[in-house]
Amino acid sequence: MLTVAVLISGTGSNLRALLEAASAADYPARIIVVGADREADGLAHAEAFGIPSFVVPWQGKERRAEWGSELADQLTVWNPDLIVLSGLMRLLPAAVVSRFAPNIINTHPAYLPEFPGAHGVRDAIEAQVSQTGASVIVVDEGVDSGPILAQERIAIVPGDDEHTLHERIKPVERRLLIDVVRDIANGAIDLAAHREPTPHS
């Protein structure tokens, strides 16, 4: 059984979907802990499902390394097989990524490498393109630049704004995330194949 830690910043809608999927007897992964960088609303989902949680408060960019170190220490206590970033609105410090890579994945509301960053939905609207998408990636030290595990196109329709488009993207993100976690658990996706080579000394 694959053990999963989920990190959030907000309402945790992806977390909720993953918790519901993981509650099924035939789903090959279990969420063992939920972490957040603030007292996020989504922590209520963990409580509802009886999942332990922790908060490592964000204390500003000048203390980013300390925050990352404390976050990594908390995760190490639980020793999850996989870490899922589910709306965590912080870029993990490189030291945290290297400590757990390649077993960190993230969802993104665009068809990467198109529209990376925190405003992928808005950027797609402003670019006046006809379609965007949703992606699940392996987290690396860049901004939404890791290997793509799954993605799907989503049309942008006349009259779409950032909110309406994002609301159509979210269900696809959730479905892709649930499928990817399942595939990692059953071996259909091998994250070790995405490990960065160790530099020679």
Topology diagram in text:
Layout: E1 2-8, H1 13-22, E2 29-36, H2 43-48, E3 53-55, H3 64-78, E4 82-85, H4 94-100, E5 104-108, H5 120-126, E6 131-138, E7 148-155, H6 162-186
Helix pairs in contact: 1-6
Enzyme class: transferase
Pfam families: Formyl_trans_N
Function: Catalyzes the transfer of a formyl group from 10-formyltetrahydrofolate to 5-phospho-ribosyl-glycinamide (GAR), producing 5-phospho-ribosyl-N-formylglycinamide (FGAR) and tetrahydrofolate.
What share of the residues does DSSP label as strand, in percent?
Answer: 15-25%
Mean pLDDT, all residues: 94
Low-confidence stretches: none
Order of strands side by side in the largest beta sheet? 3-2-1-4-5-6-7
Number of separate strands: 7
Characterize the quaternary organization of these chains. single chain
Under CATH, the topology can be stated as: Rossmann fold
Order of helices and strands: EHEHEHEHEHEEH
Sketch the major β-sheet. 7 strands, mixed
What's the architecture, going by CATH? Answer: 3-Layer(aba) Sandwich
Distance between the termini: 36 Å
The radius of gyration is 17 Å
CATH H-level name... which superfamily?
Answer: Formyl transferase, N-terminal domain
Count of discrete structural domains = 1
Instruction: Give the fraction of residues assigned to helices.
Output: 25-40%
Helix count from the secondary structure assignment:
6
